[in-house]
UniProtKB/TrEMBL annotation:
Coiled coil residues, start to end: none
Keywords from the named record: Hydrolase
Cross-referenced SUPFAM superfamilies: Composite domain of metallo-dependent hydrolases, Metallo-dependent hydrolases
Lineage of the species this protein comes from: Bacteria, Bacillati, Actinomycetota, Actinomycetes, Micromonosporales
Classification via PANTHER family: AMIDOHYDROLASE-RELATED DOMAIN-CONTAINING PROTEIN, AMINOHYDROLASE SSNA-RELATED
Gene3D superfamilies, alphabetized: Metal-dependent hydrolases, Urease, subunit C, domain 1
Entry's EC annotation: 3.5.3.13
Name of protein: Formimidoylglutamate deiminase
Chain ranges of the Formimidoylglutamate deiminase N-terminal domain: 15-38
Amino acid sequence: MRFFAEHAWVDGRVRRNVRIEIADGRFASVTPDAEPAGESLPGLVLPGLANAHSHAFHRVLRGRTHSGRGSFWTWREQMYAAAATLDPDGYLALARAVYAEMALAGITCVGEFHYLHHAPGGVRYADPNAMGAALIQAADEAGIRITLLDTLYLTAHVDGTPLRGVQERFGDGDAESWAQRVAALSVGRHALVGAAIHSVRAVPAAQLALLAGRAPLHVHLSEQRAENEQCRAVHGCTPTELLDRHGVLGPGTTAVHATHLTDGDVKLLGDSGTGVCLCPTTERDLADGLGPARRLADDCVPLSLGSDSNAVIDPFEEIRGMEMDERLATESRGHFSAGELITAAANHAALGWADAGVIAPGKRADLVAVSLESVRTVGSRPDQAIFAATGADVTHVISGGRRIVADGRHTLVDVPRELAKVLS
Ligand SMILES: [Zn+2]
């Protein structure tokens, strides 16, 4: 395959007239300032974007759970009600539509933080990995890669309170049983199996070390002040300090949210090489608070972005959230460069795909063309278009050398029809 991009994000900046050749799913050559050849990709061409944190089933809550008062904790009861109804066939249909919606917005790889493992009451399906297998199949049918972050979830509170109600579907009993089940997962070439610790609320301290050293390893961290307070009461330290004590931090680990951190927590994350996944649209919807994104970056923490609750699936909105939240918090402008924002939005390494996320020879051939002629983007300079674009401006998506979106339409899934079917 050969493409020609008038503007493409190459070597950390916008390059003009870039000829891009693809062979066996990877970039064979990338040549700026070239003569036109091959199929023209209009607008600004970016690397494929990585959605580093998703719970696919939360999509059913969009547009239904935003009014009225409450908090993260009252929202969680509504989320649990949605979790109670799914089975493997239903989850396959829902996740396929959701992942195809992600593809339309420019996402070529999803990190699915997966804890909805078992049937109601915690009963095992005939295949104990039936729900995870459904998610892996869903990503394949939507044309994107997936890292199934299979999640260890054992307790309801930091103090070890047992799971109850719908939470019983999440639990494997102990870390050994979880590891045995996960070892039996089989994946295709489009998928990786990673691990996740749901949070310090859901995994007893004594079992944290059993996951230390796994990669990629993700963990919800300090999304809520209550988690910090409960952790201090039980363990006498912050959640970040608890993870550090048990060897969980490190370059293969990504902390999700990392909203309410002490200065010491920021330093521990930076010194250990741990990454942080920000989820700006979810964090504002759930009134979580603002995390120290710039301070984390200054301490050399690699940042990534996730749609999390999928109340919004738009990587450009997450990109803008990363910068604009800092502006609101500091009353000053210009905290992240366009390059830093695109690097975060295309952080496939956080999902274990270190060979993706940039348009360069040898890397996985993921491309996203963003229109510069829509009502939102017309007039934008290409190097600032990410501050104006939305997912609706994505016109073409190539994932691993395969065309999955053309002229704004998914080539494999009728996304509006399938979403309507699973959500109405
Ligand atoms: Zn989450």
